[in-house]
């Protein structure tokens, strides 16, 4: 027997069997579109059997009608059906409502996480600005009292963070010059424009690639070293002891390291310029038969001095960014050894990102200025 029903006055009279098979063809919207008054009675007097699918159907109908302000009353349910209704009613929730709630919940969580992330980033930015401000205050105080500047420490960091990095800088720059010239040689040879390899290698290397590659290598080598050193000093309470004895930790720790990179970076970039151009000269000689004399003559004619100067001017800024970020992350290290690794990684990633970002800003600004 199939599920049957009949509308009588303010009642919906239920007949027969209401199970998963019999209600398959019934649509809730056919019931909802009826013009009910404020009250409706579900009369189960002639109900023979109902399963959970049938109960779910009536609960869904009751829910949808309640949204229209119609109150439902159930009559003549037998004890078994009554128990089944009560059990299902405890755990029933409209699927559309569940999806809506989930969507609301996901959106709420998303905005909460976004807010927390934004707040965290703003806090870090504020701390970094404070840290940079403290650095410039220390620079000013050292100008007032030059004897406070730790010159030996400054020289030590130039040697350790810059001069000892020269072998890897030289090798990297040589490879960059070779790769750049090799790729250009193949393309230029097709058009018989061999001599223009000098323009390409000269301008690209001196203006962009040599400063950028040098800064990235220094960021990977020296930024990690600075952060790890300062992190260990913080964990072993050396910085706290220094402050307790009245020494300004900025003058002892931060100033020599950052200024060492600011001073040394132009020298590193100059070496990198020379080596990368030498790599280009070798490839030009081997692949395009451009002699060293022709290369240097064309270099003097085609590569304006401004390209070399722009590359050298960017170098101190890169050195400052690498140094200040590395020291800032070092002071961020918590009192656990694992945090040294975490903040060392952050230091390198941040330094490389900001070096590339500032290089892009320099490129756009200088191009707009026709330089």
UniProtKB/TrEMBL annotation:
Name recorded for this polypeptide: Lipid asymmetry ABC transporter MlaABCDEF, permease component MlaE
Domain named STAS: residues: 28-86
Transcription among keywords: no
Gene Ontology terms for molecular function: phospholipid transporter activity
InterPro entries assigned: ABC_MlaE_roteobac, Permease_MalE, STAS_dom, STAS_dom_sf
PROSITE patterns assigned to the protein according to its UniProt record, in alphabetical order: STAS
Domain of life according to the entry: Bacteria
Sequence similarity: Belongs to the MlaE permease family.
GO CC annotation terms, alphabetical: ATP-binding cassette (ABC) transporter complex
UniProt entry tagged with the keyword Signal: no
Organism: Campylobacter cuniculorum DSM 23162 = LMG 24588
Membrane spanning residue stretches: 124-143, 163-182, 188-206, 258-284, 304-328, 348-369
Family matches, as PANTHER family: ABC TRANSPORTER PERMEASE, ABC TRANSPORTER PERMEASE PROTEIN-RELATED
Pfam families: MlaE, STAS
